Amino acid sequence: MASSSASIIDATIKLPQIAPQDPFVKVVKALAAFFVDEIQSPATFDQLRTAPAGNKIRAFVNYLVFNVSNKAIVNALLTLKWHFSTLEMDDRRLNETRANACEIVAWRFLSKLSERDAMNFCLYDLPQQTPVEAVEARRWREDATERSNLLPQFRARDHDVPSRPGTSSQRMNLLRSVSHMGYIFSSGEDGAEDEEDPTSSFTGLNALEIAAVADCKKFLSQGVVQKIITSIWKGDIIFWETLSTTTKKRAQFYSECRPDPFTRLRVPRYIKAFEVLFFATFLALYYAVLVQRNPNRITPVEIVLYIWFAAFTYEELGEFIDAGSIFYVVDIWNGCDLLIILIGLAFLVTRIFGLAKDNTSVIDASFDILSLEALFMVPRICSLLSLHPYFGTLIPCLKAMVKDFVKFMVVVAILYIGFLTTFTLLARDSFTLSEMSWILIKVFFGSSYIGFDIMNQISPHLGPPLMLIFVTMTNILLITSLISILSDSFSKVISRAREEYLFVYSIYVLEASTSNRLTHFYPPLNLIPLIFIRPLRLFVSSEKLRKTRIGLLKYTHFPIVGTIMFYESIQERLTTLDASLSTAWVSRESQSQVGKPSPFLSKRAATNSSQHLLELGTEGEVSDLDHEHTARESNNTRPATAHVDILGIHKKIDELTEKLDALTTLFMAQQNFSSDSPDGGQL
User: Fold this and answer.
1) Distance CA 296, CA 645 (A)
2) pLDDT tens for residues 11-41?
């Protein structure tokens, strides 16, 4: 079946040849050539999913499933999605169509794989090129001719700018690499062959990380991808098998047969749970210091608060190094963390200076600075609410509205400065600059009567008409325009509420699981290796240092690990108890249902039809319908009825299966599917 499908596809479209060991740059080039050659007419995202315009994409997905086993295929598709999205908007919107096509192919490809294969493709970290691969990739780029599929329309405009400046952040490196990716797609002229491979910036990133950086929100919201992310969150997928010096980071399913309890310290939901606990104690210490407000000396509670500040700062530094600037920029809560650290440093400096100089005013100012921490610490402890769909949707809405508000305030500031200058010069004998500034601010925020009361004092002749113009522009034109803009921003984000929430949730999980460090010390225990182990790096080998860190982690975190294992044992017992109660209930119901008609579709029918559709290699739309029937059967149908041995029911099931087979064959012949699952199917 696979060979026949491949032969049919080869006769209709030009397919790329991708070998299992091809370097990442070659995979990107081959895929880019396909999308540029085959997608020559614009189409929307929905049209590519459901209309005949997406027939080539469906055929291409089948080809990838049957013939391509390169581990970097999903990474390359999402990288190309980002590349096409960054290109200049053309009149026909072909670049946008190609970007959407890359995203659709990526999640449809995953939806046709097994659970383990989908995990391996999504969590495959791009390796560094070996010297042989680098030479081969360079020679391959130099052999490109003017008949290359991506023409100079994709060549970066600024040939003098290097592709990877060492002083930029990692996200800026990736963005520059994506924008300069036209070098490897264009011909070898103009010195393009001398450029460094821009895809090397993606080394060490997996497909989910690339999707998060490239804002592939539709890809991350698909069911097959969300199942992987949720498994990472719960700890069903882990990256470290054991806590030893020989272990390597590798995505794998958690097995209870050979459990290492200390690897559960890297599970994102436990990291976030203890992070909330840390912030709760942090907030309690903060309030205790403000309530005491000792101006003469540093109290023991204040010393503990400084320890918490140091642990929090070191933890943020570690997260920034592990995840880089990629997720640190995307996650909105990291902005609160930076402000908390800056305010804490300002408090510490002014506090020490005030005590050293015995200056009461400086000491009071230090506590005033500390009081600003509540503006960010209270919301930060509630960041766990981002996992709830309502709050996870509300946060992106507020973020988009703040961006539009800041942009609009530039126009407001320009008009305000103009009127302020005029009014101040006209009322130079009556009001000062500061007084006039506050008067106009009050008028802008709705106190129009204040402006009308003083307009004659500003100028008997010019004051009234100018004030009337200012009030009209601010209270009617500008305020109404601002409300309209913010409403439009809110409606745009809320229209894709599910995508926005799942994007925030995915970032939340990936940020906690992207670290390459084997040992992760929870704050404030992270200060222990900083003080006692980090200085040993000067004269102790890395292997002994790693072994020492592992031993220290086990010694200091065994109470936390015990708490985690106790929680998981209780959860397992509750699950077992629930399953036993369900089994007993099913047994009683099966006895009472003997002789009664069974449901129209049994679990056996759903299973048989699913297997048959998969053998035919049908599209994700049909298999999604089968998964929906299976899920509905397992949730809403009493399992006992599926085991009732009635010959008549089995005969009807066989007839129904034959009808489904005929219907499926008809769909494959027409190549026109009228429905498409937005989730890309379930695993």
Assistant:
1) 85
2) 567 788 888 888 888 898 889 888 888 888 8
User: Would 199 be classed as within a structural domain?
Assistant: yes
677 falls within a domain: no
Cβ(288)–Cβ(299) below 8 Å = no
Mean pLDDT for the chain? 76
User: Cα(225)–Cα(118) distance, rounded to whole angstroms?
Assistant: 8
Measured CA to CA, the distance from residue 206 to residue 47 in angstroms comes to 29
116: tokens are: 């383990």
**What is the tally of structural domains in the chain?**
5
User: Which pair of tokens denotes residue 64?
Assistant: 């990838």
169/232 same-domain check: no
Residues 33 and 99 placed together within one structural domain of the fold: yes
Whether residues 87 and 204 share a domain: the answer is yes
Calpha distance 638→59 (Å, rounded): 38
Task: Quick: pLDDT tens for 494-534.
Answer: 888 888 888 888 888 888 777 778 888 999 999 999 998 88
d(CA 377, CA 283): 7
Q: Specify whether 310 is located in the same domain as 196.
A: no
pTM of the model: 0.71
- Pick the closest to residue 184 from 79, 14, 28 (CA basis): 28
Contacts 24+ apart (CB under 8 A), 628-635: 628/677, 629/601, 630/603, 630/606, 631/682, 633/599, 633/601, 633/602, 633/603, 633/606, 634/603
Per the structure, the complete domain to which residue 163 belongs is given by: 2-217
Alpha-carbon distance of 430 to 340, in angstroms, equals 43
